[in-house]
Design goal:
The protein is an alpha/beta fold and about 220 residues long. The protein contains ten helices and seven strands. The strands form two sheets. It has a five-stranded parallel beta sheet with strand order 6-5-2-1-7, with helices on both faces. A two-stranded antiparallel ribbon has the order 3-4.
Length: about 220
């Protein structure tokens, strides 16, 4: 398979996430729910999240779970599913609903190019752009395949729903802040302000997966 977005094992960074949490205390990086407090930005009833779920109304529905980059396939399989569903059932993109949940190791792909450059996210997530570490979000534009319509912008334009895990933003932005000697709250706020237009921040990726399935989606593991 063509390695569209090379990603090497992230054990080193994950170890630093754990070490950062230990160094500064779990209160800085770990979900506050673990300490008996509410998770920041994840209210029990989030109207924006509920409105996002209510957009899942297609004749055929599929949610794609993307916890790891997997060579860029989370940006390919939704297009493949839509094309083949339309071909099989005579439907259009607008009559079906594809949902992509970016969480864990793909959370950086919910952010714009400025965040990739500022926080050196290619190094954080070990994502290569050619021979160098990526300084841009390589999932925004179409991937180099003979398959039109891949990439976040094109998929959003066709009605694909994207959810970005708030818990992953909390943990990974905190770890990056610790690495760079910055305030975790400042970095987290910066990431949240620079989520790509059209992507909904959801309380957690796993909640979004269960919510999409409750709305009738089948699930495809994409990462």
């Amino acid at each position: 398979m063509l390695d569209l977005v090379h990603s090497t094992p992230r054990r080193g960074f994950l170890a630093r996430v754990a070490a950062s949490a230990a160094a500064v205390g779990l209160g800085a990086l770990a979900p506050r729910s673990l300490l008996g407090q509410p998770v920041p930005g994840a209210a029990p009833a989030d109207p924006a999240y509920n409105a996002w779920l209510n957009k899942i109304t297609g004749q055929h529905k599929m949610v794609f779970d993307a916890p790891e980059p997997n060579g860029g396939m989370p940006m390919v399989w939704p297009r493949v599913w839509l094309d083949t569903t339309n071909g099989q059932y005579g439907t259009t993109d607008a009559q079906n609903t594809a949902v992509v949940v970016v969480r864990h190791g793909t959370i950086g792909f919910a952010l714009n190019d400025a965040m990739w450059a500022k926080y050196k996210l290619g190094g954080v997530f070990n994502v290569m752009d050619g021979a160098a570490q990526a300084t841009r979000n390589t999932w925004i534009k179409p991937l180099p395949l003979p398959l039109p319509g891949t990439g976040i912008e094109a998929l959003l334009a066709k009605g694909v729903l994207f959810g970005a895990c708030n818990m992953a933003i909390l943990v990974y932005s905190g770890a990056v802040a610790q690495q760079m000697g910055m305030d975790p709250n400042t970095v987290r706020a910066d990431w949240l302000a620079n989520v790509l237009p059209g992507i909904q921040v959801v309380p957690s990726g796993v909640l979004a997966l269960s919510g999409a399935q409750e709305k009738g989606c089948a699930m495809c593991f994409a990462g």
